[in-house]
């Protein structure tokens, strides 16, 4: 049953915060878990169907995949937040303008970014740490992914808008469609058709195409509360500027992640000796594992976003605080589970991806060190995304840059020189705990100063 504009907006401002968070977060979490499971299962298919060097080749593509995500989320996150704020202000025409602009920007970004990256793909991969043993795998995978960027960008951009405009279940279904089609196609393409790592990429693009059709049909339907309207604005500088301003936080976060992964890969190659490529593969296993739990937390923050955006727009500050508190508790609980799994059963997790004993051993050390401070990560993610959701991107950007640029990269330069490969894992753990402290202090300051001023201005207006 479709959610009407009136019910979706009124519920965001009146219903129980816990009920709303469950209503919006559970579908987002299911979609995030499904996507993470696909990434994990896809890596398992690649590791067992192609080999350990293919996992290393896949890890080499992580910086480039982060760049792809950066240019996509620049639009998707900004558009979702702005549309929620417009709905809170009962401005449905401007919310429709946002949908039109997001669609146009997704196409432009994907074509320009995907085309340029394809032209310079080999030099980019070599810069990211590819070796003679891994570049063929990385190239085969990314060529297909880049050709499919228009489908992926539009799917992700519109799916974020679908959730933000009152259709969390339909947004969940679109993500599930992508994942299920992926999981059906991947073993066929890899094992039956013997397409290797290129088959895994083809399965990803086919899944995105299926979800693209579903999401596009939603916004073409007049039954949807917010949908494409030919006479509304498609490229409007005032809207584009706000999309970029709010989307700049996740954009920079992904760009920084790209830079960080380059440092990680190069440190592992430099200090891993003869097993350098396998150390990169071990990081690939750790990355897939940590992203599983991080994506669940992101599901929570995606559920928080329309509630926070609407209530900030409507000046319901008490509800904003309640949503934030509940989100922090849930986020921490999720990463505590990740800590228990990774610290308690590292060999079990690694054995899912590979039977190579050397690779399992390197990954075991990584799990034990990398995840030691993992419980605080959930809190840091929720607070960082809180600032983005309430239209304060500069705070979110600050928190993202401090963790990845001010703390992690210096650690990656210093610690491996002292302790080798274990120093790489220690760098990530150390940056997590310092970033947590900075994030909590920043939130305390913002609540005590900026939000109090906002509350005072709302009472006096």
UniProtKB/TrEMBL annotation:
Transmembrane portions of the chain: 21-41, 53-86, 98-121, 141-161, 173-192, 198-221, 242-268, 280-301, 322-341, 367-387, 399-419, 425-446
Membrane topology qualifier: Multi-pass membrane protein
Keyword Transcription regulation: no
Domain of life: Bacteria
Subcellular location(s) of the protein: Cell membrane
InterPro entries the record matches: MATE_fam, MATE_MepA-like, MATE_MepA_subfamily, MdtK-like
Single GO BP term: response to antibiotic
Alphabetical UniProt keywords: Antibiotic resistance, Cell membrane, Membrane, Transmembrane, Transmembrane helix, Transport
PANTHER family in the record: MULTIDRUG EXPORT PROTEIN MEPA, SPORULATION PROTEIN YKVU
Protein name: Multidrug export protein MepA
